[in-house]
Amino acid sequence: MEDPFIHSTPTQFKSRRLTSITIVFLWVLFLLSFTASYLTLINSDHRFLQTSLQKTVRASAHIRRANGISVLVTGAAGFIGSHVSLALKARGDGVVGVDNFGSYYGRSLKMTRRDLLDFHGVFVVDGDVNDPRLLSMLFNTVEFTHVMHLAAQVGVQYAVENPYAYVRSNIASLVTLLEKCKSADPQPAIVWASSGSVYGPHNKVPFSEMDQVDPPPTLYASTKRTGEEITHTYNRLYGLSITGLRFFTVYGPWGRPDMAYFSFIRNILQGRPITVYQDKNRVDLARDFIYIDDIVKGCVASLDTTGRSTGSGGSKNGSAPYRIFNLGNGSPVTVPALVTILEENLKMKVTKDVVGMCGNGDDSFAYVNISLAERELGFKPATDLRTGLREFVKWYLWYYGNPLGPKS
Questions:
Q1: Is 277 a known active-site residue?
Q2: Per-position DSSP letters for 72-138, written without gaps between them
Q3: pTM for this structure?
Q4: Which of 166, 199, 220, 396 is catalytic?
Q5: What is the pLDDT of residues 140-196, one digit of tens each?
């Protein structure tokens, strides 16, 4: 078969070459047109989704009471965050949540909390506080009067396995949020979750906000203590009103499954022994257990008494309040006493394996002075451990069932 190009005249060859170039050119035009149409469609869908999201956010942030506040709650699908969000919404405040639905203790419980919030009209954005574009969208959509920053990587032991998660979640995300708040106009007032873990074995008891808390005893405590220093700096430089809350051992319905009392009830129901730690002198560990409803009252009171931020668009126009409060029960209870109350509620006995502490830096005796919060916030814990554990057991049996233990 002859090659037509070899035996073509110069005119024929030129004609065929021009035809080929024309076809290629037309294909390029087609592809460019198709790509432009596709990108327009994608951008249109993105704008539609963003507009739809903004509409939902505005509806969730709508204030339904006189002198109400509009609050961005980070970690809204978490234990404390979900309870605080529901309490604010119930009294008519505007609430928008953000949560990354991390898998530290499993996503299913967080997703159920989110569904509960949605049922009550609180929208939770699935996103990361470390994402400045997400924060910009939220702050451009709603003029938040307050931020309740509860998102954090929790747990003392997990820090040994994954220290970077604590730096990212407890320090980097805090800075990202503060940067957005300092540039907002108007600036919101900020309440955020520090931790009672900043106190260590070197501190006298009961723990007081006036105590020196350096050096922190664990990596988790170190990230929270660093957060206190960072927030103090932003308060001083940019006029942000900031309140830090040092939470102690919070318990109750919808709680965190990584907490010891969760494993205790699970083992009791399954007929398995539990491990109870003692310090080196064979003294039982004691914790300052605080029921979730009491913590919520402290959080809401902190929001209500913050005082205004004084900056505007990143510039400070005057000094603003900076506060730190202990939020605990002020009445420590030993771990064996807690186990006994669980046994009584379940009408079951459990075998206790008593072992010495592993020396991870955690306190053997946590006892907190809450007089400052009582005076400034009107904070008065009203739920004793026996009552609070009874409510927790009722919820646990309803949610998880008996005796097969928790869902995955």
A1: no
A2: EEETTTSHHHHHHHHHHHHTT-EEEEEE----TT-SHHHHHHHHHHHHTT-EEEE--TT-HHHHHHH
A3: 0.85
A4: 220
A5: 999 999 999 999 999 888 888 899 999 999 999 999 999 999 999 999 999 999 999
